[in-house]
Amino acid sequence: MQTGAANVLRKLLATHSIQDDDHEMLASFLEGGDKYAPQSGQISGILKTIHDEMSAAFADATSTENDAIQAYKELMAARLKEKAALTAAIEAKLTKIGELGVSIAEMKNDAGDTAEALAADEKFLAELEKGCATKTGEWEARSKTRSDELVALADTVKILNDDDALELFKKTLPSASASFLQVSLSSGAQRQRALLALRKATGLAPKDRTRLDLISLALHGKKIGFDKVVGMIDEMLVNLKKEQVDDDNKKAYCAEQLDTSDDTKKSLEREVGNLEASIANGNEAIATLTEEIAALSAGIAALDKSVAEATANRKAEHEEFNELIASDSAAKEVLGFAKNRLNKFYNPKLYKEPAAFAEISEHVQANPGLPPATWGAFAKQSESNGGVVQMINLLIADLDKDMTEAKAEEKNSQADYETMMADSAEKRTADSKSLSEKQAAKADTQAAVEGHEDDKASATNELAATNKYIASLHAECDWLTKYFDVRKQARADEVDALSNAKAVLNGADYA
Q1: Dihedral pair phi/psi, residue 483, rounded to 5°
Q2: What share of the chain is helix, strand, coil (3-state, %, to 5)?
Q3: DSSP letter string over 191-234?
Q4: Could you read off the pLDDT of 408-434 as tens digits, one per residue?
Q5: pTM metric for this prediction
């Protein structure tokens, strides 16, 4: 009580106003001298109880947090598996949608072609039914006419063969012409009648009359017998039939080739149109993919920039946290030295020798984040009833609180940073995958467009060749098609004339 510190306390008690309880305690301490009995043991017990309770609560909170972290990791793993499965299902369904779209487009094209073919077949059927109805009517008319002609001929023969008619013809027609049977005929008369039969084919063109002119010259001459003329007529009849068969085959060939070429032309025109539509769609898809690729590339660059900025900020915050912990730890060490010095006077039992305290200081410097509860016996026995020691304890508690808050903030910031890094990595992976897929799709689309362009060029060349072939067919077949019926009729007239001439030369009478 003879020290300068005691005198300072007496002056403070006399000149300053403090609380009654503190005033009485301090006055009793200054007056009692050796009668003052410190209560540090009770306070240390209370602090130990508080420490044990806080340690138990911290252990429980740590266990609960670890369990929550484990549950979160398991939940995230399950969710990631579910997400992967759903993503695969979505990709499969998108692929199926694309394939179905292509099938629908092909079916629509086939439906259009089938509708055109059906319309053409229905038109042909209508024309065929109309033509068949006309031909049926003509055939019925010819059949009726032929039947009437046969009946008339039969009646005429019956009338002429009647006995009374024959007697009448004998009286009125005594010449040889009264008989309906050819009795005799001179060669000159046969020649004239044969020439007359040939001249009936007057509708032939000069080119087609050359054969008849040859027969006519042979009949005018008298050195050639009928047998040679009949042979010439037979040969000409064979040639005429062969020419008609050739014309029929040529007409059928022209009709078939024109129809086939027209179908080929329509098919190539449809193919060229489809290829032009595919090229336009491909170019549009390429433009869209180019925009999406640019957007994804910009997004990835912005994401990388954000990650770099977040990493720099996290690094700066961590350095600031380490500086704060180091500063607070150094301040706690200084306060520990001051407190130990006060204990040397107020509570010698709690006083630590400088060597032992230096070991604790080194431990604190090596582990700046440890709370005072981990200092062992020094932390448990550093409490004193003195007001100055209490203020030191309050300062240490403030430092501990500041360090605890800094650690919590650091932990939360680190967790947020790790979450952001994970989300950013996942997003960048997804964007990079999408970018690769779109780049591959763009390359495939460009290849497809180039293929379509090559196919279009080939189809266009083939279409031009088909048009050229159709033009050559028209040049070859139009004249035959146009004059086919005329040529057929002329050839039939020529055959009829030759047949009649042959019959005359063989003895028939067409007078």
Answers
A1: -105, 15
A2: 90, 0, 10
A3: HHHHHHHHHT-TTS-TTTTHHHHHHHHHHH-SSS-HHHHHHHHH
A4: 989 998 998 899 889 989 888 998 898
A5: 0.37
